[in-house]
Here is the input.
Amino acid sequence: MIISRKTFLRATGFSLLVAAGKKLGVVFADAAQNAAFAPSRALTAGRWAMLVDISKCLEKEDCTKCIQACDRSHNVPEFTEPAHQVKWIWKASFENVFPSQQHDYVMDRLKEKPVLALCNHCSEPPCVRVCPTQATWKRADGIVMMDWHRCIGCRYCMAACPYGSRSFNWLDPRPHIAKLNPDFPTRTKGVVEKCNFCEERLAKGQLPACVEACPQKAMVFGDLDDPNSQVRELLRSRYTIQRKPELGTKPEIFYIV
Amino acid sequence: MFMLEKALVGGRKYWIWILCLFAIIGLGFLSYLRQLNYGLGITGMSRDVTWGLYIAQFTFLVGVAASAVMVVLPYYLHNFKAFGKITILGEFLAISAVIMCMLLIFVDMGQPTRVLNVLLYPTPNSLMFWDMISLGGYLALNATIALVTLSAERKGIAPPRWIRPVIILSIPWAVSIHTVTAFLYSGLPGRSFWLTAILAPRFLASAFASGPALLILLSLAIRGLTRYDVGREAIRKLAVILTYAMITNVFFLLMEVFTAFYSRLPEHMEHFQYLFAGLQGHALLVPWMWTSVTLALVSLVLLIVPATRNHESILPLTCVTVFTSLWIDKGLGLIVGGFVPSPLGAITEYSPTLPEVLITLGVWAVGFLMVTVFYKIALSVREVTAPWVSLRGGESI
Amino acid sequence: MRDKGIIYTVLIVFLGLITAPFSYNLIAGRTSKGPEIKLPVSEKNCVAPTEYMKESHMKLLVAWRDDLVRRNIRTFTAFDGKSYNIGLSSTCLANCHTSKADFCDRCHNYVGVQGPYCMDCHIDPKLTKGSRP
Here is the structure.
C-alpha cells in the first residue's frame, strides 16, 4: 500500500503524541504513589534559633566538644592545610567574630578569647540571594539548607557570606575523615558546605549535636516564634549581641556576653 | 560552513602560529584534566580567597568583550564611516572574548558537569543567572551579526534589513554584560571593597580602555602581516576614545581612594592598604599594584599628548602599557583585594599555582586561536570582494 | 575483477571483526543468562512493583532525594501501604539491599552502567572507614 507523505507524517506525529502521553501518565502515577508525610516525633518550629552563652563557654576555654560532635556526626573532613579547611562550627577570637563590637579596650574577660562561630542561618541570607541554582535556600522553619546534589561549586555563596561560615571541598574529603558516620553522607569534592542546624537530627526529635554535646549547657536551641520557649525567655532577660547586625542579615544566632 | 575553509589556507608563519597555540591549548587541557581529578585544591585558592585567577581573568575579559561597542556604536548608530573596516575586527574580538569568559567560568566550577543546573533551575534573584543569560545572548547577537554581514559581503550584496535592529540591540547589551558582571560583586554586603556604586562605571571605563587598546594592537598587527589596513583615521579616533576612557578610569579609582581614606572607615581602607602597602607583613600584591599605577600614569601622559598618541611607533607601546596596567588592576588586584582581609579579619594571601596558570594560558590561547581564525576568514572575504591594496607589499599570511 | 583477491580478503576480515563480539562470547563460554543477583533476605516486600523498580528505580531515587532534601518529606508510603524512612544508606542499603556488591553492582556491571556518582557521598554500610566501593 502506498501512503502519501502527508499521511505518513500525520500518523508519525500522532503516535509520538500517544507515546508522550503514556510517559506523562507514568510520571503522574509515580507522583501519586509518593504520598508521604513527616514522622510525628520530629521537632518543628516556626523559626529555629540558637543562643550561645559566651561566659559559660569561656569557663572551659579549651573545650572543643561541640566542634568534635558536629564533625563526627556530619563526617566533616579534617584538612591540616588551612587553605583547604572545612569547618561547620569553630572558635575564633572575640574581635574577629564581633568586628562591630571591636575597640582598643575590650574587657579582659573577653579580650582575644575564643568564641564559637558557625552559620548564622540569617533571616535575610545573602548566600541564598546569590545562589544561581537554588542549591541553598531558606526553609520555612528558618534553616538555611544546602542541597549537595545541586551545587555546581561556583562559590558565589562563599563570596556573599559576610561571616565566612561556608567551606568548599577543594579536595576529595573522604580520605580526611577519621571515622565515617554511616548515618550521614559525606560530601564530594567541588561542593560548598556549612552547618545545617542538624536538620536530620531535628527530624528524628533530637537537638543539634553541638547543643547536646556541650558540657556547660552554653548553647540553647529553640523556636523564636514561640514566646514561651527558653530562647525567647533568655532573649527577654539577658543582653544579647549578634554578628555584624548593621548588614541587615538578621542572624538567628544570638550571643549572651 | 562559516567560510571555515578560508582559515585552512595560509603560509608558514600562519601555521607555526596556529601550532604554537594548539600546543599551549594542549598543555592547558592536560592541566585541566589534572584539576578535574584532584579537585580545585590544585589551584592557589583557599577558604578565604575563594575566587582567583580564573574569575579575575573572566572579569577582565568580559570588559574586552563589551568594548566592541566602542566601534559598533559610532559606525552603526552615528554613521562614522572611518570605522568601516575595524568594526568586524571588534565584533570578532568580542566573540572570542565571550568564549574565553565562558571557558574560564567552566574551569572554575567545582562540579562542571552540573553547569546546566543554572538553566534547569532558573533563579532570577541570582546575578550569576543573569550573567549566563547576558553573556549567552551577547554571543548569539555578535555571532549572528558577524555571520550575516560577512556572508552578505562575500556575496557582494547588502546585508538584510533585519540585521540593523539586531546590531542596535547589541549596543546596550554590551553595556549590560559588564554591568551585570559588576553587579556580581557590588551587591555583596560582606565585601566592602566591592560594595560601591561606582564599581559598574569603573568596570565599564576600564573595559572601554583595555578593549580598544587590544583592538588597536590587533589592527596594527594585521596591517603589518597582511594588506588589510583599517585606516589612520580609525586608529586615531579609537586612540582618542581610549584616552577618555583611561582618564575616566583613573579618575574613578581616585574617587574610591578618597572615599576610603577621607572617611577613614577601617573596612574600606583595609583592602587598599593590603594592596598598596601590605597588611600585617603580608604584601604580595604591593609591587604588582604599584606597577599597575605607574603604567597607568605613564600611559595617561602618552595618550593625552597628541604627538605621542598619534605617533605610529609609540602608540603600540602605549596600548601595551594600558592593557597591562588594567590587566593587573582588574585581572588580579580587584578580585584578590576583595577577599583580603576575610570577613573574620584573617589575611590569607593568594598566588596562582602552575596548573592554574597553565589552564588560564590555555584559555587565552583558545581566544587567540579564535581571533586568528575569524580574522583570517574576514580578511580573506574582504580581500576578494574589495581588495584594499596598501602600498606596502608584505607577505600574505 | 582484477582485485578479486583483495576484496574477498578484506571482506572476510571485516565480517570477522564485526562478528567478533559474538564469537568471543561463544569461545569464552558466556551465555545470555542475566546477572545473578542476591535478593534481600530481611525484607520480603519491595517498595514498588518489581517491573517498575527494574525500569524506573533511578527515577524513584531522584524523587525521594528531592522530597527529602528539598521538601523535608522524610517517609514514603509504598504501594502495599507500608511506610519507609527515606534514606539511601540508612534504609535502602542498611535494611534491604544489604550487599550493594551482590545486588546493585551485579546488574550494573552486567549492562555496563557506570551509574551516577551516588556512592561518592553516600556511604555503603558494609564498608569500613575511609574506603570507597
